Amino acid sequence: MDVEAVLQKILPRIRPTDEERAFVEGLMRELETIAEETIESLGLDVKPYFVGSLAKDTYLAGDHDVDLFLAFPLDTPLEELREKGLELGKTIAERLDSYEIAYAEHPYVRARYRGVKVDLVPCYDVESWRDVKTAVDRSILHNRWVFENLRGRNDEVRLLKRFLKGINAYGSEIYIRGFSGYLAEILTIRYGSFLGVLENADFMLRQKIIDPGNWLKREHEVAMKTVRREAEADRPLIVIDPVDPRRNVAANLGWERYGVFYFRAAQFLEGPSEGFFFPRGQKSGSYLAELRRKGTHLVTLVFQAPGLVEDILLPQLERSARGFEKALTREGFKVLGWNVGHEGSKAFIMLEVDRRERERMMIKPGPEFFTERGRDFYRKNDRVWIIGKRLFAEKVVREGVVEVILELLEKNQVAMGKSVRENIRDAGIMLDYVPKELENEAYLFLSREKWNLKG
């Protein structure tokens, strides 16, 4: 199937229908009315703005999260913005279906209304990057920039977002380190279309710096500071935010996710298919068969997951896995790879090691040579020598990897994430066995299908 035919089959699946658009527009009108009435009743000088993909009309069919920003005047003190912003958010949310307080740079309200997630976020009413005081303020400027520059290429953004989701490279959260929605919009605008972005996967990486706002001319020093900082941090891409020369839009994009995009883009251009956008279910197989095939061993630590959001939990688990890798390497085991995650209330760390046991040579002191016990010691050991009156021998000791891990934990010799340290100390440790709910995860890890670039 040629590329255009594939895209024509994908578009109806990802473009919102007329009924869906009518629902979204109605929902936004209702929310705007509720917000305006609440602002008035509290006597506040606040402007409600819709931001995000819903407001920019780059959302995918069925994906209706609403971001309603409550913009306070620039002269509002930060403490007041936090306090009054939260109060306003809660008062609006009381007229919706349900809500909870969530925390980012400052507290905001996460509500639900007519089956849709609605984030009510206080911010400053900024006109330019120089006004930005909190991390969320730029979102209003992002919306304006995309509106002014997208010029009807909304479906091209949808194709890119769906492609990135299909190849598991979408989302700038720290535990994904992929492409954000805003980055997908900028790249589509910069390269003109979905296919334009894919065709430039290699060029982007070599060019490194993308400057759609022309900041390197307009604000050279500020923009160069951003470029130097991000180049030093070795980011795959530096995309200077078209609304703020101090920020790299691709700062959270990791090399691994860019690498996946790099190979998948080339594969799609060579052999276009719907499977890139809507992959068929994950591969599955036997983790025990993988262990037999490779002759390696799997150590799995399972423990109670602390109540942390994924953004915090997963980096803590990764840090701990790297700690185990270092500690076991020091102890003479080879760690061939690690994997972390959580399933329900349990978290896990998987370590693939080269062997179950290590042999260690020990020097064994014995009795004086001229005693009965000395003669017995001499008979039982192969390599025996005398120092002074005492006998000594070499002894080979076999130690299992699980015992070594227990000893390392007991002696506090593993660097672990501080929020998960105590939970890991109480972990159940399994060798070449995992609980039923982790069987597929173990297979995907050991077979490397979890990260396989050719699958």
TrEMBL record:
<keyword id="KW-0694">RNA-binding</keyword>
<dbReference type="Pfam" id="PF21133">
    <property type="entry name" value="CAA_C"/>
</dbReference>
<dbReference type="GO" id="GO:0000287">
    <property type="term" value="F:magnesium ion binding"/>
</dbReference>
<comment type="subunit">
    <text>Homodimer.</text>
</comment>
<feature type="binding site">
    <location>
        <position position="119"/>
    </location>
    <ligand>
        <name>Mg(2+)</name>
    </ligand>
</feature>
<feature type="domain" description="tRNA nucleotidyltransferase substrate binding">
    <location>
        <begin position="155"/>
        <end position="278"/>
    </location>
</feature>
<feature type="domain" description="CCA-adding enzyme C-terminal">
    <location>
        <begin position="294"/>
        <end position="427"/>
    </location>
</feature>
<feature type="binding site">
    <location>
        <position position="170"/>
    </location>
    <ligand>
        <name>CTP</name>
    </ligand>
</feature>
<dbReference type="Pfam" id="PF09249">
    <property type="entry name" value="tRNA_NucTransf2"/>
</dbReference>
<dbReference type="GO" id="GO:0004810">
    <property type="term" value="F:CCA tRNA nucleotidyltransferase activity"/>
</dbReference>
<dbReference type="GO" id="GO:0000049">
    <property type="term" value="F:tRNA binding"/>
</dbReference>
<keyword id="KW-0479">Metal-binding</keyword>
<feature type="domain" description="Polymerase nucleotidyl transferase">
    <location>
        <begin position="37"/>
        <end position="142"/>
    </location>
</feature>
<dbReference type="GO" id="GO:0001680">
    <property type="term" value="P:tRNA 3'-terminal CCA addition"/>
</dbReference>
<keyword id="KW-0547">Nucleotide-binding</keyword>
<feature type="binding site">
    <location>
        <position position="56"/>
    </location>
    <ligand>
        <name>CTP</name>
    </ligand>
</feature>
<dbReference type="InterPro" id="IPR011068">
    <property type="entry name" value="NuclTrfase_I-like_C"/>
</dbReference>
<feature type="binding site">
    <location>
        <position position="142"/>
    </location>
    <ligand>
        <name>ATP</name>
    </ligand>
</feature>
<feature type="binding site">
    <location>
        <position position="65"/>
    </location>
    <ligand>
        <name>Mg(2+)</name>
    </ligand>
</feature>
<feature type="binding site">
    <location>
        <position position="56"/>
    </location>
    <ligand>
        <name>ATP</name>
    </ligand>
</feature>
<dbReference type="InterPro" id="IPR002934">
    <property type="entry name" value="Polymerase_NTP_transf_dom"/>
</dbReference>
<comment type="function">
    <text>Catalyzes the addition and repair of the essential 3'-terminal CCA sequence in tRNAs without using a nucleic acid template. Adds these three nucleotides in the order of C, C, and A to the tRNA nucleotide-73, using CTP and ATP as substrates and producing inorganic pyrophosphate. tRNA 3'-terminal CCA addition is required both for tRNA processing and repair. Also involved in tRNA surveillance by mediating tandem CCA addition to generate a CCACCA at the 3' terminus of unstable tRNAs. While stable tRNAs receive only 3'-terminal CCA, unstable tRNAs are marked with CCACCA and rapidly degraded.</text>
</comment>
<dbReference type="InterPro" id="IPR048833">
    <property type="entry name" value="CAA_C"/>
</dbReference>
<dbReference type="InterPro" id="IPR015329">
    <property type="entry name" value="tRNA_NucTransf2"/>
</dbReference>
<feature type="binding site">
    <location>
        <position position="67"/>
    </location>
    <ligand>
        <name>Mg(2+)</name>
    </ligand>
</feature>
<keyword id="KW-0067">ATP-binding</keyword>
<dbReference type="InterPro" id="IPR042090">
    <property type="entry name" value="CCA_tRNA_nucleotrans_2"/>
</dbReference>
<dbReference type="InterPro" id="IPR006116">
    <property type="entry name" value="NT_2-5OAS_ClassI-CCAase"/>
</dbReference>
<feature type="binding site">
    <location>
        <position position="161"/>
    </location>
    <ligand>
        <name>CTP</name>
    </ligand>
</feature>
<keyword id="KW-0692">RNA repair</keyword>
<feature type="binding site">
    <location>
        <position position="170"/>
    </location>
    <ligand>
        <name>ATP</name>
    </ligand>
</feature>
<protein>
    <recommendedName>
        <fullName>CCA-adding enzyme</fullName>
        <ecNumber>2.7.7.72</ecNumber>
    </recommendedName>
</protein>
<dbReference type="GO" id="GO:0042245">
    <property type="term" value="P:RNA repair"/>
</dbReference>
<keyword id="KW-0808">Transferase</keyword>
<dbReference type="InterPro" id="IPR043519">
    <property type="entry name" value="NT_sf"/>
</dbReference>
<keyword id="KW-0548">Nucleotidyltransferase</keyword>
<feature type="binding site">
    <location>
        <position position="53"/>
    </location>
    <ligand>
        <name>CTP</name>
    </ligand>
</feature>
<dbReference type="Pfam" id="PF01909">
    <property type="entry name" value="NTP_transf_2"/>
</dbReference>
<keyword id="KW-0460">Magnesium</keyword>
<dbReference type="GO" id="GO:0160016">
    <property type="term" value="F:CCACCA tRNA nucleotidyltransferase activity"/>
</dbReference>
<keyword id="KW-0819">tRNA processing</keyword>
<comment type="similarity">
    <text>Belongs to the tRNA nucleotidyltransferase/poly(A) polymerase family. Archaeal CCA-adding enzyme subfamily.</text>
</comment>
